[in-house]
Automatic annotation (TrEMBL), chain A:
Lineage: Bacteria, Pseudomonadati, Pseudomonadota, Alphaproteobacteria, Rhodobacterales
Keyword Zinc found: no
Native source organism of the sequence: Tritonibacter scottomollicae (Epibacterium scottomollicae)
Keyword Transmembrane helix among record annotations: yes
Subcellular location: Cell inner membrane
Protein name: Heme exporter protein D
From TrEMBL, chains B, E:
Name this protein carries in UniProt: Heme exporter protein B
GO terms, biological process: cytochrome c biosynthetic process; cytochrome complex assembly
Lineage, opening ranks: Bacteria, Pseudomonadati, Pseudomonadota, Alphaproteobacteria, Rhodobacterales
Domain of life: Bacteria
Keyword presence, Transport: yes
Membrane-spanning residues: 12-35, 41-64, 96-117, 123-150, 157-178, 190-213
Family from the record: Belongs to the CcmB/CycW/HelB family.
Main location: membrane
GO CC, any one term: plasma membrane
Organism encoding this protein: Tritonibacter scottomollicae (Epibacterium scottomollicae)
Subcellular location: Cell inner membrane
TrEMBL record, chains C, F:
Pfam families: ABC_tran (PF00005)
GO MF, one example: ATP binding
Protein name: Heme ABC exporter ATP-binding protein CcmA
Recorded superkingdom: Bacteria
Domain ABC transporter: 2-198
InterPro entries: AAA+_ATPase (IPR003593), ABC_transporter-like_ATP-bd (IPR003439), ABC_transporter-like_CS (IPR017871), ABC_transptr_haem_export_CcmA (IPR005895), P-loop_NTPase (IPR027417)
Keywords, alphabetical: ATP-binding, Cytochrome c-type biogenesis, Membrane, Nucleotide-binding, Translocase, Transport
Automatic annotation (TrEMBL), chain D:
PANTHER family linked: CYTOCHROME B_B6 PROTEIN-RELATED (PTHR30071:SF1), HEME EXPORTER PROTEIN C (PTHR30071)
Record domain Cytochrome c assembly protein: where: 13-183
Superkingdom classification of source: Bacteria
InterPro entries: Cyt_c_assembly, Cyt_c_biogenesis_CcmC, Cyt_c_biogenesis_CcsA/CcmC
Lineage: Bacteria, Pseudomonadati, Pseudomonadota, Alphaproteobacteria, Rhodobacterales
Record carries keyword Cell inner membrane: yes
One Pfam family named in its UniProt record: Cytochrom_C_asm
Predominant place of localization: membrane
Protein name (database record): Heme exporter protein C
Subcellular location, record wording: Cell inner membrane; Membrane
Membrane topology reported for the UniProt record: Multi-pass membrane protein
Matching NCBIfam families: ccmC
The species this protein was found in: Tritonibacter scottomollicae
Chain's role: Required for the export of heme to the periplasm for the biogenesis of c-type cytochromes.
Record-annotated membrane-spanning stretches: 21-42, 54-81, 93-115, 127-147, 159-179, 199-221
Length: 51, 218, 203, 244, 218, 203
């Protein structure tokens, strides 16, 4: 850990906030992607099953 | 009763996020203030509590016209009036739904927007508290205004015109509390008055609203 | 079920119909007829309790009435099922399945009401009556926009409702194939009030 | 073999699925590497102290906030002119990424401003125009959400994007005219003397490259999701058609 | 064309005074400002030009939703679109009618309301002039927003959200001109920019508005 | 007057009708029939030029069409006369008297449209057609809410319009007593598109 001096709070909170937002974006993206993918699969199956 | 609350909340969420939109308007008014009065941060700090209150009030005001008018237009209001619920209760529930979807988000957003206006550090608590106490009154009074104007073709502006004077006492005490808080002065008196207005409005206004709505329906 | 005595109704403060009189026992239907503008809508709104009568009395339980107007009262962003469920809960009934079945809405149940055609919307708004659990139905031109098959569905529903002891009053211009008394409103058209009637009004 | 082949949803899905894994890995490596480099292995600035380390997040986020809008503008134009559904969906997919990037730039900037300028927020032109950009994103996303019919939504949002871009540029000029700023100028331009020192610049470049790749990966992935959601919607409508 | 203008003006007058209501809203916002920021007259004088511009902008914004939505709801818009008038012209006429019934009254009222806010003596001319030059842009931009949201159930707040960022340049130059005028500084540059925005918007935006309206009608 | 070739129309991006084909010479009427939700409204909007066709062509002069939808298009605060005059001026015609006469609106001419009953409003909105001067009338359920006498007025108007060389296409569920070709849309219902159509679309 480098010595951040008196600005430690500033720097760390900036990093924390940014990384949190990036992670959130990634998680939401992947989560919605997976959900849509599986829903589509079940819909396709239902429809093809029906003929 | 809970069916009605649920339906109103669901409609608010579904209609392209009726929820976020009051908030967005609040944000926009706050942002526009510096564009119009200039970027000087000392001036902004002085007017910040007032601007936040005025912005919340306007956001509330603008969402009033969807409170009853939509139900009126598609005939639901006629049907609700003949349903086995007292009209007073229907209107109270609608006020509650309005506060949950409009007032509450404004309360939560106010401190964040305070940053944009250089709100003095002591002011954040009091702006939030005064809005929390005051916004329910705005919803209940607004419901009364909406019930008054519901029959009129696009009563939007007329609604604002009628409701604005009714909002004056709430605004005065609310903004006064926030300003005193920001300046580090005592806030008990205006906060107490504000609470009194809110309680009184919640207890009594639904009867008046139901009465005018009955007139408008006939 | 409802007993109407010497009823006068007004619209915009002006008398429209005068001396309307009828009694409707359970298990019967009454069809209101009359040319455009005679006052059918006004009469029905008065019966439903939405506006006060000008004179006369309406005997009957206002809490036993379900009203369906020209407008549909549908929330366009809610689905067919959500719309019905809401009204079912408001009226304390819980099962919407019979209504869905009676109006052939099963295929549309997850569709937003806004995406329905004019006739499909109408079917949904008629289905609403069935979930009210009310016994007296007051219907203003119920079959507008309906095709022949749906009119049959509607007639069957009305018949079932009457058989189970309900009653219905409807205004319509077309023949619904429902047996019931027909009341032509033309003779009840309000006469011009005398110019100097000394009643505290302005005539 | 033209680029428009990828306008076919299937082809697009197929190709993007092939390139995505390497994109994820590369962007993660660059961002993590650049941040570690910047955070642990660069000295403090003589004036700004350790706060200079915020630059590795702030500047790439600001860069992507603007470039995401450009990408949306381009995709909107392609939709308006050639009516390829994939490009409309790509614009839709990029907007939330853009707004998050804007938010990161705003938040890191605000946090940075506290020690440097003594205030969280000032109505500096650069900051202000970012706030306006944020509003444009908000309106754009809200409009997408508010419309059911996907083609109508694509048409309306793309025209909004075109008109909005013109007004965004106008706002930029207006804001510049309105207030002189506190914010430093663009110091990465090649011919200026006040370029940031190389010690800061190299990890910064690494992070910027990482953010660009991350943006591309996110947009490709999200466009795929939108395509699937769109297909699902169509399939469900088709199913209804068959039994209505 | 003139038939449409006449009809819109007549409707504005008849609908319970669509005419007076924008004005009333402007008045009320202006009156509410002292309630919310406090009665200190030095502060008020500083923010007066900005408040007048912001009030005018909000009054304009609030009246936008009656610009097209009424015609949409009753089906007139479908009929107008199949009538022998180009849609661009229809929308330009509607913008003009909106300006005549909303913008122009605001311009005339602004100096009067300036008195309430202690506007410095030099400011009256410039607030009027800047509003006169700027409000037509507000109407034209607003028409674009209204055309964008016309199909949406109660797009009222969404409309505000979309239009507000588009209003930013007009507001900045307009308020800047008014503020400089009130402070006795040179106003040419912002006024010229404002004029440029207005002319550009009048010349180009009707095409965009017609395009989005066509999409919404189909 | 209008020649429709292999027309497909869509609603919300989905095909509703396919392969519709007809030609309508002057002085004839075409009545569209079909159950609720088959796509009558969608077809009429497409013919009127309000939405683009999905496939096929419509030959004819779009500037010769007057369209009347489910909604009335009336301004409720304007009087009957003002409403008509406005549309007359928009369409470049000037005399509203024949329209007033044909739909028996003389007694209502100074009344605000908002104070009319449902059927009276409908009469006014039909009268609008006469002041357009257009030759092809496209009508969506024109007789909703009309009483028998008004339906007669309407039929007479249509006959006069046809005799003077006009044409009309109307969708309706009831019998209007107008001689003209009847086109049942049921056979044109769009087939399900293939699941894996490789057309760059999403199926
Ligand atoms: C809160 C809002 C802020 C926003 C929206 C913002 C926005 C931006 C943008 C858009 C850039 C990219 C400029 C370019 O590359 O041309 C940038 C760069 C930069 N910002 Fe900020 N900024 C903010 C606050 C701050 C603060 C408070 C500081 C520090 C005191 C700061 C320091 C920098 C630095 C050092 C750069 C790199 C400039 C360069 O040399 O290119 N920013 N900022
Ligand atoms: N505001 C008003 N002022 C004057 N007369 C009015 C007003 N509103 C309605 N009327 C008149 O009251 C009468 C009754 O209208 P009502 O809507 O009850 O008729 P209706 O029998 O339902 O006709 P329809 O079959 O056309 O629906 C009509 O002649 C109408 O013109
Ligand atoms: N947004 C939508 N999404 C999916 N389907 C839709 C949507 N809007 C309409 N439809 C469907 O398109 C079909 C055609 O509707 P249209 O209004 O043209 O029917 P119609 O023949 O006029 O019926 P009616 O006689 O009831 O007026 C209907 O089955 C309707 O459910
Ligand atoms: Mg009626
Ligand atoms: Mg139809």
């Amino acid at each position: 850990m480098p010595d951040l001096g008196k600005y430690a709070d500033t720097v760390l909170s900036a990093y924390a906030a940014s990384l949190l937002l990036l992670a959130l974006l990634l998680v939401v993206t992947l989560w919605r992607g997976a959900r849509v993918r599986s829903e589509l699969k079940s819909v396709e199956k239902r429809i093809r099953g029906n003929g | 009763m809970s069916a009605l609350l649920l339906r109103d909340l669901r409609l608010a969420f579904r209609a392209g996020g009726g929820f976020g939109l009051g908030l967005a308007f609040f944000l926009i008014v706050t942002v526009m203030v510096p564009f119009s009065v200039g970027p000087n941060s000392a001036t902004l700090a002085v007017i910040a509590p007032g601007v936040l209150w005025l912005g919340a009030l306007l956001a509330c005001l603008l969402s009033l016209d969807r409170l009853l008018a939509l139900d009126w237009e598609d005939g639901s209001l006629d049907l609700l009036a003949t349903a086995p619920l007292p009209l007073e209760a229907v209107l109270s529930v609608k006020s509650l739904a309005h506060w949950l979807t409009t007032g509450l988000p404004l309360v939560l957003a106010a401190p964040v927007l305070g940053v944009l206006l250089n709100l003095p550090a002591g002011g954040y608590l009091w702006i939030t508290l005064s809005l929390l106490i005051g916004t329910p009154a705005l919803s209940v009074i607004g419901t009364f205004g909406a019930a008054l104007t519901v029959g009129l073709k696009r009563g939007g502006l007329l609604l604002s015109l009628l409701v604005m004077p009714l909002y004056v006492p709430t605004l005065i005490f609310g903004a006064e509390a926030a300003r005193r808080g920001a300046a580090g002065m005592a806030v008990e008196t205006p906060l107490l008055m504000l609470g009194g207005i809110t309680l009184g409005a919640i207890a009594l206004l639904p009867f008046a609203s139901a009465a005018v709505l009955r007139v408008n329906l006939r | 079920m409802i007993d109407v005595r010497d009823l006068s109704v007004s619209r915009a403060g002006f008398p429209v119909l005068e001396g309307v009189q009828f009694a409707l026992p359970a298990a019967t239907a009454l069809v209101l007829r009359g040319p455009n503008g005679i006052g059918k809508t006004t009469l029905l709104r008065t019966l439903a309790g939405l506006q006060p009568p000008l004179a006369g009395e309406i005997l009957g339980d206002p809490d036993d009435i379900a009203y369906a107007a020209h407008a549909d009262g549908l929330k366009l962003t809610l689905t067919v099922e959500e719309n019905l469920t809401f009204w079912a809960r408001v009226f304390g009934a819980h099962d919407i399945e019979p209504a869905i079945k009676a109006f052939n809405l099963a295929a549309l149940r997850t569709r937003a009401a806004g995406s329905l055609s004019a006739g499909q919307k109408r079917r949904l708004s008629l289905a609403r009556l069935m979930v009210t659990g009310r016994r007296l139905w007051i219907l203003d031109e119920p079959t507008v926009s309906l095709d022949a098959a749906s009119v049959q569905l509607f007639a069957a529903t009305i018949r079932a409702h009457l058989n189970s002891g309900g009653a219905a009053i409807m205004a319509t211009h077309i023949d619904l194939g429902i047996e019931g008394r027909v009341l032509d409103l033309t003779p009840f058209k309000a006469k011009l009030p005398a110019l100097d009637a000394d009643d505290g009004g302005f005539l | 073999m033209s680029i428009w082949e990828y306008a076919n949803p299937k082809k697009f899905l197929h190709t993007s699925e092939r390139v995505l894994p390497s994109l994820w890995v590369a962007s993660a490596a660059l961002i993590v590497g650049g941040l570690i480099w910047g955070f642990f292995f660069t000295p403090d600035d003589y004036r700004q102290g350790s706060t200079v380390k915020i630059i590795y997040l702030h500047v790439p986020a600001a860069l992507m906030a603007i470039n995401a809008w450009f990408m949306m503008l381009l995709a909107s134009l392609i939709w308006v002119i050639r009516r390829h559904h994939v490009s409309a969906l790509a614009a839709k997919a990029a907007a939330p990424v853009g707004i998050i990037m804007t938010l990161i730039a705003l938040i890191t900037g605000a946090i940075w401003g506290q020690p440097m300028w003594g205030t969280w927020w000032a109505w500096d032109p650069r900051l202000t125009s970012f706030l306006v950009l944020f509003l444009f994103y908000l309106g754009y996303i809200a409009l997408w959400e508010a419309i059911d019919n996907p083609d109508t939504a694509a048409d309306l949002t793309s025209i909004l994007c075109l008109v909005g871009s013109v007004f965004a540029v106008l706002s930029r000029y207006a804001v510049n005219f309105w207030n002189q700023g506190l914010h430093q100028g663009a110091s990465l331009s090649l011919d200026k003397e006040e370029n940031v020192a190389d010690v800061f610049a190299f990890p910064l470049y690494t992070c910027m490259a990482g953010f660009i790749l991350f943006f591309i990966a996110l947009v490709l992935y999200r466009t795929g999701t939108e395509i699937r959601a769109r297909r699902m919607k169509t399939l469900i409508a088709r199913e209804r058609m068959s039994d209505a």
